[in-house]
Structures are given as structure tokens and as C-alpha cells.
Amino acid sequence: MTAGLKTIISLSFVLAIGFLLVILSCALFKQYLPLIVVATYVLAPLPNWICGRCANPDDFVESSSNAVVDFGRFCTGFLILMGVALPALLAHSEIIRWAAALMSITGGVLIYGTIIAFGMFFQEESEF
């Protein structure tokens, strides 16, 4: 699958909308705690990427152990869940409003979805 110019432009547009929703959820209600969602969604792919690189350092030897890859997936899933649950927790404890929490969750999901889509479109294919 090759990524064309239209794909790059559309994914950038969706990413901009995600960041706009998160920033508006902070600015409209004058509570800047929903910005934590951006950090969790930006950091979410890192454990999966790092553990994927550490699991099989040699391309010629196939290892049967996938514990490192599973740990990376667990950490990524935890960060994604934290990105959704943290605004809900803050809204439930009335630190932020529910509208800000919903905007933050929606923006965060758009941000992470765009990061995953960029990874899928620009993934290098193996020659084997």
C-alpha cells in the first residue's frame, strides 16, 4: 500500500482536528488538565515500537518468545485506556466539565487513530 499526497493531506487534516478539539476543550472551559491526553496518545505507540525492536534483534533467527512484544502491547493498551479514562475521571470528580471531557476524548481518539494510520501507510514492506 502506498501513501499518496491525498492520504498525507487527509491524515494531517484529521490530526489537526484532533489537536483542535483537545485545545478547545482546555481553552473554552479554562481548565488545562485535558492536555494530559495529548501526552498519553503521543507516548502510546512508543512501548509497542520499542518492544517490537527489542524482541527480534536478528532478522535471520526466529525466536519463539513473544513476551516482550506482549508487554509492549500491554503498555500501549494501558496508555490508550488512560487517555480515555483520565478525562472521564476528571469529569466525574468535577475537576473539568463533561463537555470538555468528551471533546478531549474525541480529540485524543482522532490523534491516536491518525498516528496508527500514518504507521500503516508508511510501513516498510519486507522483501522476503
Count of discrete structural domains = 1
Portion of residues in helices?
A: over 70%
How is the biggest beta sheet arranged? Answer: none
Q: Which percent band covers the strand fraction?
A: under 5%
Number of strand segments: 0
Mean pLDDT: 85
Unreliable segments of 5+ consecutive residues: none
Spell the H/E element sequence: HHHHH
Q: How far apart are the first and last residues' alpha carbons, in Å?
A: 16 Å
Q: Shape from CA axes?
A: flat
Radius of gyration based on Cα positions: 17 Å
Which class best fits the helix and strand makeup? Answer: mainly alpha
The number of helices is 5
Give a verbal description of the structure:
One of its GO terms (biological process) is late endosome to vacuole transport via multivesicular body sorting pathway. This protein is mainly alpha-helical. It has one domain. The protein is built from 5 helices and no strands. Helix 1 packs antiparallel against helix 5 (98-121), helix 2 (36-43) packs parallel to helix 5 (98-121) and helix 4 (67-92) packs antiparallel against helix 5. The longest helix has 26 residues, at 67-92. The model has no long low-confidence stretch (mean pLDDT 85).
